[in-house]
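ugh ok fine here u go
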Amino acid sequence: MPAMTSVRDGAGQGASVVEPIQIDVPDDEVAELRRRLHATRWAPEVDDSADGGSAWAAGMPGPVLRELVAEWADGYDWRAHERELAAPPHLLVRTEDPAVPVVHAVHVRGSGPAPLPLVLTHGWPSTFHEWHRVIGPLTDPAAHGGDPADAFHVVAPSLPGYGFSPAPTVPGVSPRRVAALWVGLMRSLGYERFAAHGCDWGSYVTSLIGLDHPAAVVGLHMGMVSLGAPVSDPALRSAAEDAYRGRVRRWARREHGYIAVQSTKPASLAPGLTDSPAGLAAWLADKWWSWSDRDAHGEPLVPREDLLTTLSLYWFTRTIGSASRMYYESRRDPVVLQPGQRVEVPCGFLLESAGDDRSAERRLGTAAVPRTGAPPRERAERAFAVARWTETAVGGHFPALETPELFVDEVRAFFRPMRSG
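structure:
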């Protein structure tokens, strides 16, 4: 457990829940981060726009990174954001998995006649902080102009090796294993049956809860289609599916590098990113800015302070290496649906649009960043019992931060018919 968190076992020896008292990074750690940012050893730079190309062609441009590092060092108030992070109840919950003895979770009980338990699972390069704009409206809808009948008990865990969930010290903690952990986590908190939502890795974990533990969930809501079912005859694929496959190939040619490294050599990447905050910022901010949508002025919909809080969480908890390892573990333990097999729990999706020209690329400064958009619904229906399908023209990979009102409306609407069960 990171030294920054004071922990009190509120229930005694052998209890299933351990309650942290506070998130409190020591002053010397905050000062050391600032010192390292000021002392960044900058790499030689090539201006990739000099020949008419994109400044982002080879990754994060030096001037953009320098600006971000300067703001992190001298313009960002960690203490103010630390107080916000520490405001909701934080728990460490013991598990029955020896590789993951405890996991961290934010747990906020809902205010309403019959709140529905809901587990929210983040992905990479995110943290539990991804949900901070939506936890209030989900748990207390009446206080945010909504119907109290739509209230949820929200559980927002940190994936193993992310943030305040300690890093596994043995191999094998794959997304499928996390799905089983989450069922145990929810039972430890008193929820035998619950709702689930996830984005990025969280979508994969959520889909595997439905595949492996269908009796535990009333429904699944996801920001990605993370499982695919085989086509009986490739010649029967539709034109829409072929177009989607083409978009995925274009995206992979431009953006697949991080997956190649993290799925094969995460241990070689970890020391540099754990030791250099500027290196950490370059590796993660490149993804946050290329995967999130822009407003009318070209600014990312993800607020800068949320990016810097996320970077700070990775830095202070030293978890970039263990977080990146999720790609390696998934590659070692792939999930392949058999013919006719699918997730039969009712599923809903909130996805980036693939219905117009903007689905082909996203502007990033002067760069055209490929984006895949949503797959055809028919593709998803081979793997999931799709009960709700929403494609949005606004927002990107992080809807709870980019379009929180839309996110909350979608989650409420999807799970509303399932509450009586």
